[in-house]
Design a protein that fits this description.
The chain has 496 residues and is α/β, with parallel strands linked by helices. It is built from 15 helices and 16 strands. The chain has helices at residues 39-57, 73-79, 81-86, 99-116, 132-144, 223-235, 249-262, 294-300, 303-311, 325-342, 360-367, 372-392, 395-411, 426-448, 452-464, and strands at 4-7, 12-15, 23-28, 61-66, 148-150, 158-160, 196-201, 219-221, 238-245, 267-274, 277-279, 282-283, 319-321, 467-472, 475-480, 491-494. Strand 9, helix 7 (249-262) and strand 10 form a beta-alpha-beta unit. The longest helix has 23 residues, at 426-448. The two termini are 47 Å apart.
């Protein structure tokens, strides 16, 4: 089955064939580094990380680009002294921090969140501030083509002329005449209130360090032109996939498409958008108090469980967080790890290579617009089949299931998540094994004496400590599956 992806622009699921055989060019919007990452940011990053991993598993080379917007109105606002006066200085927004230092600090916070969840770095991660020349070139092309104009009020602003481009609104299927005014710049120099800023002339309140000398006057770029310039620099005038969160479709991606196409670029062949994250069915809002941050998630559950939760829904669907979500995700991850440990494989090591097979049903699900929920159903069914094979002593079937599970979890990115429980040494692992084995002997003795209450109590004690037990005809196998110690994954078996 060929890979099929939902294209936002055409609102259809279409066969995907890369522009260049054997190679996929992917651009997806990264962070505007004005603050710490929220759960929507990391959900998007996980979704496009899974897409990249699946493309690579099918044998394709993925040239991936994720931008950093490090110059923006909000970044300047939050570093300004007036902001500190209105909002008492905090560790996140200390007084007198230059805008570029604030942006860099939050860029590192995003990297930390991505790394904690096993989101691999893209091939290139360009910053907007490093690509002014490319933006100047794009803006001049638009002016020369009659689709942009410098403001006539001496402000130094340059605007895209929405009325000059009949296809404006095609990405979100809106009519330009029904749209509201663009609110990204002072309308004083606009010919049409819907025109959006390509370049913003310097303002008296702007720091001198936030100005670049452009042909139209000193200033800084508009948000939308940044991505168009960076995407085409690294991927060419036409590339395969442009992605991002659903909230970016308008105006950001609509404006990217319009200015790039008006300049003569083919731009993105497919537009992919991931859904939002809600809290118990409601939109997350700081004012309501129903938000949860990546840091809070990672403090409440293992990183692997958080990664599983963030990637488990179909990328286009809404992902709903509830108080039980991470517990359920942790239980699912532990079932996978317990099977792999029973099968004699390290649960933290996967085999994602293109030469490693996955079940046909898993491949069909992933090729069906990246249907991760269905792919996870195949994964867990393979785990169940593997456990049955273990209990039956069917070694060839166990090996086949374990190999398939190992590859599937690697494709989903679960094996690349750093875990604190993987850092122990041989001495601590040996000590843990001795303690668990002593408790298992106690459990065997209790069962022999028909003291089932005591046997159950031992099992509950081990479970609470993060040790999973699997009883079979050959005896009891155990595996450490939760971060309850600093040891590496230990396993064992005991008769009875």
């Amino acid at each position: 089955m060929a890979l099929r992806l939902y294209d936002t622009k055409t609102a259809t699921v279409r066969d995907f064939e890369p522009l260049e055989p054997g190679r996929v060019s992917l651009y997806y919007c990264g962070a505007t580094v004005q603050g710490r990452p929220h759960v929507g940011h990391v959900r998007s990053a996980v979704a496009f990380d899974i897409l990249t991993r699946w493309l690579e598993h099918t044998g394709l080379d993925v040239l991936s680009v994720r931008n950093v917007t490090d110059i923006d109105d909000k970044i300047l606002e939050k570093s300004a002294a007036s902001y500190q006066q209105d909002h008492a200085a905090t560790p996140d927004y200390p007084a007198n921090e230059p805008w570029f230092a604030l942006a860099y600090r939050f860029e590192q916070a995003f990297h930390a969140a991505y790394d904690a969840l096993g989101v691999r770095r893209p091939r290139y991660e360009p910053r907007a501030t490093g690509h002014m020349t490319e933006m100047f070139t794009l803006i001049q092309r638009l002016i020369d083509a009659g689709h942009a104009y410098p403001a006539e009020d001496g402000s130094g602003d340059v605007y895209f002329s929405v009325g000059s481009w009949p296809s404006y609104g095609e990405l979100t299927r809106q009519r330009a005449e029904d749209m509201q005014d663009a609110g990204d710049a002072d309308p004083r120099g606009k010919r049409d209130p819907r025109d959006f800023a390509l370049w913003k002339g310097k303002k008296d309140a702007d720091p001198a360090t936030a100005r670049w000398d452009a042909p139209w006057g000193a200033g800084r770029p508009g948000w939308h032109v940044e991505c168009s310039a960076m995407a085409t620099k690294y991927l060419g005038s036409t590339f395969d996939i442009h992605g991002g969160g659903l909230d970016l479709r308008f105006p950001h991606h609509e404006n990217e498409l319009a200015q790039s196409a008006a300049a003569g670029d083919g731009f993105a062949r497919f537009w992919l958008h991931n859904g939002m994250v809600t809290y118990a069915g409601e939109k997350m809002s700081k004012s309501v108090g129903n938000t949860i941050s990546p840091e809070e998630m990672l403090s409440a559950a293992r990183p692997r469980a958080v990664r599983y939760f963030l990637g488990q829904a179909h990328y286009r669907s809404q992902l709903d967080y509830r108080p039980t979500s991470l517990t359920e995700a942790a239980a699912a991850v532990e079932r996978i790890e317990t099977f792999l440990a029973r099968a004699g494989q390290d649960p933290s090591v996967g085999t994602p290579g293109a030469d490693e097979p996955v079940p046909d049903a898993f491949a069909a699900a992933m090729n069906d617009d990246l249907n991760v929920p269905q792919a996870l159903a195949v994964l867990h069914e393979t785990v169940r089949a593997g456990n049955i094979a273990l209990d039956a002593g069917d070694s060839p079937a166990v090996a086949q299931c374990a190999a398939a599970v190992s590859t599937m979890v690697a494709v989903l990115g679960l094996t690349d998540v750093p875990e604190s429980d993987q850092s122990g040494d041989a001495a601590s692992e040996s000590a843990l094994s001795e303690l668990v084995e002593a408790l298992l002997r106690e459990r065997v003795e209790a069962k022999s004496a028909k003291d089932y209450a005591r046997a159950d109590a031992v099992r509950e004690k081990l479970t609470a400590a993060g040790v999973a037990l699997e009883d079979s005809r050959e005896g009891t196998r155990w595996a450490l599956v939760r971060a309850s110690s600093t040891t590496s994954p230990a396993t064992g078996a005991r008769k009875g």
